[in-house]
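Extended Data, record Sporulation protein
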Amino acid sequence: MLNTMLTGTGAPGLEVETVVANREVMVGHTLDGLIEIAGGTGTLQIQAVTLDLVVRALIHDDKGGEPHHGLILLAAATVATDMTLEPGGAITLPFKMEIPRHAPLSLGVSTAGLRTHVAVEGAADTGDGDAVRLLPDRWTAAVLDAMETLDFRLAQSDVEHVPGDPCPFFQRLRFRPMSLKDVRVECVDLSFTQKDDGVDVAVTVENRAGLFSRAHEEEGSLQVNDQVLAEGPDKVLDLLRDEIARLKGSMVA
């Protein structure tokens, strides 16, 4: 529930409350809820009610500037425009917002925030926000479940924004091995590229240096689609286990 009091902005006593039906939503699905606007000591002309879904990311400047962290817009919706709110009146506005499939997942410290904006004639635009958890689609979820079964634990989630790229968000998930059988593995990094019927998974294994070997990094990939899922959950597990084992290889002298 989001609450915004617009006192001091030229709209005294106006209260805005956003109620989300479910704060956890799968990417590619719809976030919906209600925005309730009430109060006001005088007649107010509401110019627009809008929603922004944002995520914090490392932003790469397309003009060549230094990368920096900031909020990037994932999705936006205009809920209503040109309304009159009488003194003490109330307005309830339903909303729906489509969550893009390429939206970064809410894993680790990566979170998405929903912000409500109410623009009132003669008053400053204002807004408030709250966290929304973005959950993986079924293909990505199968890979994450397999990593847990293989005894790898999520250690870090990095989100980068690359302007002009066909998929503007890049999220890297870093996993640490918990099992002694993977003791020579420093970490396994995964990133996902969405396809119509699944995901392409980029897999990077960072291997530790040994007494007679140097540290090294190996890159590979696998595809998880409807056909793979139809073969059962063990199929994804086998594919991922085999790819990590291949990338571990033998110690490099």
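Summary. The longest strand covers residues 68-85.
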